[in-house]
Design goal:
By secondary structure, the chain is α+β, with helices and mostly antiparallel strands. It has a single domain, classed as HIT-like (HIT family, subunit A), CATH 3.30.428. It contains two helices and five strands, in the order αβββαββ. It has a five-stranded antiparallel β-sheet. The longest helix is centred in the middle third of the chain and has 17 residues.
């Protein structure tokens, strides 16, 4: 069970199954699901099961978790056959475009992604 801010966090509730989602990947450390407002043909959100508000809240103790989240994104990209390329994005804070205060990776692919993104 969660305490504090995590108790009301939408991504915590999605990860624990309290709010339904289209699951793409699940293990003890991470949960991945389809974005409700996709910005590409493949748009998956990968969240740690541990509530962390953003990258700014991480420290050295989170190195293995952060690596695992990226590995999960890569595995999903393989299963979605994104061999032509994909993007992994982590928005941090309001100026970085973060809209949910729970660390999450966006896996985007299935079309050409222009640069700069915006």
């Amino acid at each position: 069970m969660y305490t504090g801010l995590a108790m009301s966090c939408i991504f915590c509730k999605i990860a624990d199954g309290s709010i339904p989602s289209t699951a793409v990947y699940s293990d003890d450390l991470a949960y991945a699901f389809a974005d409700l407002h996709p910005q590409a043909p493949v748009h998956i959100l990968i969240v740690p099961r541990q509530h962390l508000a953003s990258m700014a809240e991480t420290d050295q103790s989170h190195i293995a978790l952060l690596g695992h989240l990226h590995w999960v994104a890569t595995e999903i990209a393989r299963t979605k056959q994104l061999g032509n390329g994909y993007r992994i994005v982590v928005n941090t804070g309001p100026d970085g475009g973060q809209t949910v205060d729970h660390l999450h990776l966006h896996l985007l692919g299935g079309r050409h992604l222009a640069w700069p993104p915006g």
